[in-house]
């Protein structure tokens, strides 16, 4: 898949709530995920560790109130998307996450992701 195809597929998965399927299909085995130091989850390396980090974040959500995902912006082998989540988090109350997500694609797989919020 091209970078544009990977980006479009990821957005499709996100918009339909299929994050685990996205990780299984689109992520490289040695993916690197960088989270902000003050984020609710830590950075991770490897498909299994990134999937576990995602499960930990999902478990922190008490109630979803809304969310969205922009269309991807592609440049070379990188793309970015803007995401928004309005949720009540366990022990944190209701919060809004506005983030920019940056991805790198190699050989049709996502090999790097970094979140800014």
What is the succession of H and E elements?
Answer: HHEEHEEEEE
Secondary-structure arrangement, i.e. CATH architecture: Roll
Shape: globular
* Mean pLDDT across residues: 96
Give the helix tally.
3
Which stretches are poorly predicted, pLDDT < 50 over at least 5 residues?
none
Helix content: 25-40%
Describe this structure in words.
The protein is α+β, with helices and mostly antiparallel strands and 117 residues long. The protein has a single domain, classed as Nuclear Transport Factor 2, Chain: A. Helices cover 30% and strands 48% of the residues. It has helices at residues 3-15, 19-26, 47-60, and strands at 27-34, 44-45, 61-69, 73-75, 78-89, 93-106, 109-116. Strands 1, 2, 3, 4, 5, 6 and 7 form a seven-stranded mixed β-sheet that branches. A hairpin with a 3-residue loop joins strand 5 (78-89) and strand 6 (93-106). Helix 1 runs antiparallel to helix 2 and helix 2 (19-26) runs antiparallel to helix 3. It is globular, with a radius of gyration of 14 Å. The N and C termini lie far apart (29 Å).
Structure characteristics:
117 residues, alpha+beta, Nuclear Transport Factor 2, Chain: A, seven-stranded mixed beta sheet, 3 helices, 48% strand, globular
